[in-house]
Amino acid sequence: MISDFFYPQPGGVESHIYQLSTKLIDRGHRVIIITHAYSAPHPSRSGVRYLTNRLKVYHLPHWVVYRSTTFPTVFSSFPILRQIFIREQIQIVHGHASLSNLCHEGLLHARTMGLATVFTDHSLFGFSDAASIMANKLLKFSLSDVGHVICVSHTCKENTTLRASLNPLAVSVIPNAVVASNFRPLQPHEAKLLTQGGKGALLPPPPDPSQPVGPNDPITIIVISRLFYNKGTDLLISALPLLLRRHENLRFIIAGSGPKAIDLEQTLDSLPQQLVYTASGSPRVVLLGSIRHEEVRDVMVRGHLLLSTSLTEAFGTVLVEAASCGLMVVATRVGGVPEVLPGNMTIFVLPEVEDVVRGVTEAVGLLISKAVRRDKFHDLVKNMYSWSDIARRTERVYDLITGCPSAPDNIANYDEEWQHYGQMAHTQSQALIDRLKRYFGCGVWAGKLFVVVVVVDYLIYCVLELIYPREGIDVCKPWPVMGADDGTFGIEEVVLERFGTVRQKTRR
Question: Are the C-beta atoms of residues 178 and 152 closer than 8 Å to each other?
């Protein structure tokens, strides 16, 4: 897995990469993650780190220029990436996120080395502004020689297929998921712990999702989002005063950071004091700033509603997490959001101030009228989304591009009609001249530039093979495991089982 976006930075792409990697390890695969080094304001991460479930992370020393994206260098990453690919005996390189420069460079170098490649798109882009045109041309270059593309929603698939002029058979839809055990509704024994000390004393008390909401009871709305323009922060800032005036029992908890945080604070400072504070003096709007992913659930269980005002969204993992915690969801009808949750859990609104106010008012009315059972949401979401199922479907994509036989559980899920679906899209030739033909068709001028880039990359690869022969590169040893009876450590010989967990032998 290779991407600029990974922990310790929180986010949907980061969570997707981690959860998918751990479940693929459970299915018998060996997975590593390649990302860039992190420094302040995030906890420092550099070199090689190990996470749970034998997951290894390489933090490369790259220069970060904007929103955790590294500076595009095209060729400078090739020597270190080649070392990692050979050391770890990599067979498939899976890139994530359209705006990740490290992802695009990794896919290019992997194809030059003859490795299989997969790309997962997590975002939606337009076609008219200059930034989108340049991003789409870059995506067209990267995906011209990629084995398969995965999108997190059907809307995302249509968008990516048009942007990169792809064969629809070479694009699969595999959504995000949620660890339901980590996002469960409030438990009776937790109510007292969440109100003791620290920030918990300043936040509204967590409600019981099994109890109905009275007409005069306070209703807490949760907003968890990066405070950027594309996340609809301006829409939230405009709707917030109207909602505070219309509903005196509303409370807001806003978690997230970004350049729009200053605008949000200035808006709250400009409002009358009686509008942003209750009669007892407690704030009606609490700004938490940036929070860690493991704190998201503790914030969500304090609310009745989740409000999402995004202007563009390919999937929206936070919507699934909120529903799993027992929250009603009010979200803008953009991108792939209508595909995420059923109508009995969600109220869709237009990305307009008046409609956001209307949607929140309608959701408040449903809560008071007891027309919605929030205590049933968790069990429904648990059956809808599972990372084990996402890993199984992703593994089938790997089988298609490598020609490996499918795992027994994958074979059982597809009948004869769908068993070989998408396989014809992977029969393209891997010869260099055929690769250059595919790049040449990317545009009148861009095609010639892409051909030059690929040729230079191939020449660099030949030079690296001469200077640093792969025979002189140490191969990483298998993960050490505990001995059978005597408690000694041995070296793991992994025998991949394509269904279930890894079967291990011990060599002392």
Answer: no
Residue 434 C-alpha from the chain's centroid: 33
At 203, the amino acid letter reads L
Per-residue pLDDT tens, the chain, 508 aa: give them.
Answer: 999 999 888 788 999 999 999 999 998 899 999 999 988 777 788 889 999 888 999 999 988 887 788 888 889 999 999 999 999 999 999 999 988 999 999 999 999 999 999 999 998 888 888 888 888 888 898 898 898 999 999 999 999 999 988 888 889 999 999 988 889 888 777 766 666 555 555 677 788 777 778 888 889 999 999 899 989 999 999 999 999 998 888 999 999 888 999 999 999 999 998 888 888 888 889 998 888 888 888 899 999 999 999 998 889 889 999 999 989 999 999 989 999 998 889 999 999 999 999 999 999 998 888 778 888 899 899 989 999 999 999 999 998 888 888 888 777 777 666 666 666 555 566 788 888 888 888 888 888 999 999 999 999 999 999 999 999 999 988 776 544 444 444 545 444 444 444 444 443 3
What domains can be seen in the chain, in order of their start residue? 12-177+387-472 (3.40.50.2000), 181-384 (3.40.50.2000), 480-508 (no CATH)
CA separation for the pair 276, 269 (Å, rounded): 9
328, 330, 334, 339: CA torsion to nearest 10:
20
pTM of this structure: 0.85
Dihedral of alpha carbons 129, 134, 139, 141, sign: positive
